[in-house]
Known about the structure:
alpha/beta; 10 strands
Amino acid sequence: MAVRGESRLKVLARQLLGGDSSSGCPNCACKDGGKPAPIELKFSPEVQEALQQHRPVVALESTIISHGMPYPQNLQTALEVEEVVRQNNAVPATIAIIGGQPCIGCDSSQLEHIARRGTAVRKVSRRDMPLVLGSGLDGATTVSGTMLLAARAGIKLFVTGGIGGVHRGGHISMDVSADLTELGRTPVAVVCAGAKSVLDIPRTLEYLETQGVCVAAYGADEFPAFFSRHSGCKAPCRVDGPQQ
């Protein structure tokens, strides 16, 4: 028990302070500056091979699996989304934490583990990462948590549903999603359906501007509102093709 506790403390220390050993990441952004990655990542063989061969990899979050819908619909949806990515000549990398180990690309048994446990799995944003890794817990990564681990893994593109934002009344409560600050600090492109419609979208866009985030609508002039293409807010930028 003492040995296990010491091991978990070392993981926590690496997360907070940085460690002395390499993560073994085949394409880790942390290596650019010659510094070892503070988080040890576990890559699925499919994702590891794709990164080594410089093939396109798309990161996917896991909170939608644990908290988005009940079992078995959540598992079925996760597998279908991964298949859509493969059909478009890219490799899916669903990111989750299993027993304190960040997994970059989950196999079917890991996806089912998260799906079956559902809301018993802790949501993990940047704030929660040290606790979950250090305590050996399971974790379902939010937009913020997925971006952080994707960047450490060298994955440059992340696809999700709706991002978090400024809550209604957020100018009083200061209830602002960590997704927004992560978008301003982590070099990962996020393709999404806009911010969730229950949020204060005008203030969300203002906050993203403050964070220096380039927000572009694809083939539209209006910023989307999750399940709707219309929010009543003009998008800061518009792009009409992948080359843009």
